[in-house]
Structures are given as C-alpha cells and as structure tokens.
Amino acid sequence: MEIEKIESEIKQCKKCPNLVKSRTQAVPGYGDPKAKVLFVGLAPGREGADLTGVPFTRDKSGLLFQEMLIRTGFSDEKNPGNEKPNLKNVFVTNIVKCNPKRCDKSGRARNRDPTRNEIENCRHFLEKELRALKLKVIVPLGKESTKLICRELNMNCSSNWKKEVKAGDAVIFPIYHPAFIVRGGGKQKYTKQEYQKDFEKLSRMIAEESSTLH
Fold first, then answer.
1. Per residue in 19-42, pLDDT tens?
2. Fewer Cβ close by (within 10 Å): the C or N end of the chain?
3. pLDDT reported for residue 214
4. Fold exhibited by the domain 2-211
C-alpha cells in the first residue's frame, strides 16, 4: 500500500542531522487510508507524538484533538488517551515528521518551530501523502500550517481563516491548532465548545459530499 511505503521512508529518513540527533523517533502520518479528510499540523510535539510515534496523542493538544474526533464521529475510540486510535475517514499528519527541540537556559528541552531547511527536507513526504489519499477536505491546524499548505498548493488561502477554499477536487478548511485552545484561545477566548463546532462542520461537509454520490 502506498501509505505504508511512505511511512517506511519517513521512519528511515536522516536528511536533517539535528533532528535525527534530538528526536526520539520519526513520526509518519496515520489514520484511514481511504480518508477524505486530512489534518495537517506543523511538527510532532515533544511530550506527545515524539514519544508515541503517533501525531496528536498523549500531550494536552493530542488529548483535545482526539476528543474532538471522538465527539464528531471521526474516531472509533471512547478514550482520547488511546495512543493508537482507530480513525474513520480521517488521516492525520505533520508538515515536518520529527520533533524540533531547543534547550532553554536551564537546559530543559522545549518545542521550537522547524527551520525553512527542515520544512523543505520534509516537503516531499507531504506531497506523497497528498497524492496517495483521495481527499475531499484538507484541514491545516494553525496559521503556520495553513501558510505552508497554501504555498504547497500554490494558493492564497491563508487570509480565509475558518472558511472553505476550493483547491482542485478538494477544499481547504483551516482551523486553530489544538494547542491554541489548550493555552486559552487567545484574545478571543476561543472555547472548546466553539472548537467542537469546527469539527462538526467538517463532519457535515463530508456527509453532504457523500450524499451527492448516491
């Protein structure tokens, strides 16, 4: 299967020496190989996916994300803490497949944004995932992921926050990264309940698309 081949390539990748040195493991995308929805984060979290090998698991952002998938019917799980979730109609990945770490003054490891070179080194993996999946909706999580996805598809959609933008046979629907909600939702105090509505909208979009095929 094409997705399994991509997963194997990601796990063996050593293009970024700094990431190879600091990562626990490379983190491929996961989910339903027949997915119509692709969620795209920026990079694996240091306290989550870097440890579990599965995007958006274990850490606070991952737990919230899994809860949203469960509540809106995109997951067969009952417990958002399951670190190998069985997803329905959804595939989840990151633009960069290894956790970018930095150390603060006390020597404690922290997340950092990936460099431009790290993004470019990983870019072909995202391209392969986009080709392998027959997507109807691409959901960038957060502004940085949105900018990069729009650039990848040669589109100017970063200004259309939380609005659907047509991209060939698919639609781009950017929403907040779960970490934004965990940290309090910014100045607008974006709540967990509002975040769930974004996922519910996705569910309706897929249901409406499926109904037109019958």
1. 998 899 999 999 999 999 999 999
2. C
3. 44
4. Uracil-DNA Glycosylase, subunit E (3.40.470)
